[in-house]
Specification:
The chain has 14 helices and seven strands. It is globular and about 75 Å long. By secondary structure, the protein is of the alpha/beta class.
Length: 336
């Protein structure tokens, strides 16, 4: 039922956009001698830059700095993303594999590939899974260890860890109900792989173990309303000596604040690494695959938004990484 409601809402939005586009085009044609020069003046003048800057500030505040609006909007966005794609394992994997949601990581070579232990299906998400590998690349004895991923999305990264690191019990927590439903359906029967819907800032309410050896967080924390509360929750669920590994992006001006928050509960910093170049390289290498997914699954009126969301070349996030207005970081910390 929810899927039909979402489809209807998207159709209504599309019709509204189409209607106003028609009205705008009609006005532009009728008043062509006036609208053309006015449009050109606005486009090439500082007014256009001013309008864009104001729009970006409002957008950034709502999606990256506000509290309740940010949490609500990201949850709805990821819930609605799930409705665009088949939930059935056999059907969705035959069309296009989509189990990981991040910008990826690539070596600075022509193909950028370094993982050679992936199955044929996993190779479709090579760069996304390489980011997971990079996050826990340091040698260690993972066999039988307990791991929690907060912001587990569609479960592909956690499944990769479970398969390749010989971990014991693995738990994935995500705020999106539909993403968790997808994971519970498609990883059913894999022993030791558990998925729970929950809030990253309220892990105490989920009856999770309090002695995890590893807690990981991949390109998820920018959606959180209260990052410091999330760090408190992570610390509470790590055993003494346990490892917290996080990778995500921030505007560079907010980097010192982010790093202070990471250490606010006494976690000891073991590793700090800037991987922006490797992430942007992966975004370029993986763009064709993501373009195919958008073409097959997204209404043409919504495709421009999804291209920006996916970080295609020319998108604001891609330009921000290139100019280093935003940076993509890895931090590894330990509970002492």
């Amino acid at each position: 039922m929810n899927q039909y409601v979402t489809t209807v809402l998207l159709a209504i939005v599309a019709l509204i956009l189409l209607f106003w586009s028609f009205i705008g085009a009609l006005i532009a044609i009728i008043f062509f001698p006036i609208t053309l020069p006015v449009g050109l003046i606005i486009y090439y003048s500082p007014i256009n830059r001013y309008i864009k800057n104001k729009y970006h500030k409002v957008y950034d505040y709502i999606f990256y700095q506000s509290e309740r609006p940010r949490k609500f909007l990201w949850q709805k966005l990821y819930d609605n993303l799930a409705t665009l794609y088949p939930q059935d394992k056999q059907e969705c994997f035959q069309i296009f594999r989509w189990t990981s949601m991040n910008y990826g990581f690539a070596l600075l070579t022509d193909k950028g590939v370094f993982l050679n232990n992936l199955s044929d299906k996993q190779q479709e998400e090579q760069y996304c899974l390489q980011l997971y590998n990079k996050l826990l690349e340091k040698p260690g004895n993972f066999k039988g260890k307990k791991l929690l991923e907060v912001g587990s999305g569609r479960g592909g990264g956690l499944h990769y860890y479970k398969e390749n690191l010989q971990l014991g019990q693995c738990y994935g927590v995500d705020f999106s109900r539909r993403q968790i439903q997808f994971c519970q359906l498609n990883y059913k029967g894999i022993q030791g792989l558990n998925f729970i819907q929950g809030d990253a800032e309220q892990l105490d309410q989920l009856n999770l173990p309090k002695d995890f050896d590893y807690v990981v967080n991949v390109e998820s924390s920018h959606c959180y309303a209260n990052f410091e509360q999330f760090i408190v929750q992570v610390t509470n669920h790590l055993r003494s000596g346990g490892i917290f590994a996080i990778t995500d992006f921030r505007e560079i001006e907010f980097l010192p604040q982010w790093e202070e928050q990471l250490k606010s509960t006494g976690l000891e910093l073991l590793l700090r690494e800037d991987i922006t170049l490797s992430v942007t390289h992966a975004m370029k290498l993986d763009e064709k695959r993501k373009q195919q997914w958008i073409s097959k699954n997204v209404n043409f009126l919504l495709r421009p938004f999804f291209r920006k969301f996916a970080g295609f070349q020319g998108s604001r996030i891609f330009k921000d990484f290139q100019s280093r207005k935003s940076v993509y970081m890895i931090y590894v910390l330990q509970k002492v």
